[in-house]
Amino acid sequence: MTNRRLIVNADDFGQSVEVNEGIMCAHERGLVTSASLMVRWPAAPAAASWARSRRDFSLGLHFDIGEWVFAGDRWEALYQIVPPDDAVAVRAEFVRQLDVFCRMVGANPTHLDSHQHVHMKEPVRSVITEMSAELGVPLRLCNGAVRYCGDFYGQNDAGTPFPGGISLRAFVRLIDRVPPGITELGCHPGFGNTAPTAYREERAHEVEVLCDPRARAAIRRRGIELVSFRSVR
Predict the structure, then answer these.
(1) What DSSP string runs through 164-221?
(2) At what angle do helices 87-105 and 124-135 cross, to 10 degrees?
(3) What CATH number belongs to 4-67+76-231?
(4) 111 contacts: CB under 8 Å, gap ≥ 6
(5) Which tens digits make up the pLDDT trace of 12-65?
(6) What is the DSSP string of 94-111?
(7) Where are the domains positioned within the chain?
């Protein structure tokens, strides 16, 4: 058995019909083995229903309290659900989203993460770290059992398009660097997106690369095993 295992996890599942279709395509025809569900959005029930019938697909909770874009010289909110510095509000919203997830999916999430990695700052980090321990599931970037790679992305840190980051060549370079153990490779496939977000046109390019036979062949040649979060204990 190989000592290098790769989870290809698609964020934003449920955010829109277009994102759902891209993620489903990237699983059925490509490399996606797992996704993180945004339960607040109208397309989330359809995403959860589709995922329930696929035993080779794991589904986590993509905690969503807002999205921010870089405008001029500062970050501005496209939308905000609760203030990220209000621990009481963050906890209540997380519990609410977790409850919605469990009712939609009929099971606990296999993993936890958050939109725009908001959980990497306090007090969100402490709230979700505690909940991940209670659930016994990994939390992105906070669990030693799973290394996270978020470099397959079509924008730079200021939100400027960076198509080279989601090319086949870029994907293969990332695969070359997969170390022993379990690695989660984050991605954002979709066929566009009608939801309020700054990441739109890039999604279809991600689908193209994730479904490219050359990408799968690169993984196979390097002896890397594709798995889902169900493999993480």
Answers:
(1) GGGSHHHHHHHHHTPPSEEEEEEE---S---SS-S--THHHHHHHHHT-HHHHHHHHH
(2) 40
(3) 3.20.20.370
(4) 9, 34, 36, 58, 60, 61, 137, 138, 139, 140, 146, 229, 232
(5) 999 999 999 999 999 999 999 999 999 999 999 999 999 998 989 999 999 999
(6) HHHHHHHHHHHHSS--S-
(7) 4-67+76-231
Which pair of tokens denotes residue 38? 């945004």
pLDDT digits (tens, 9 = 90+) for 9-24: 999 999 999 999 999 9
Prior bond of 123 cis (ω within 30°): yes
Dist CA 39 CA 177 (whole Å): 33
Token output for 167:
């090319």
* C-beta of residue 200 within 8 angstroms of C-beta of residue 154: no
Cα 181 → chain centroid: 19
What gap in Å lies between CA 23 and CA 217, rounded to an integer? 20
pLDDT at 168 over 60: yes
The pLDDT tens digits for 95-105 are 999 999 999 99
Q: What is the pLDDT of residue 75?
A: 80
- Set 11, 12, 64, 113: catalytic member: 11
Q: Is 56 a catalytic residue?
A: no
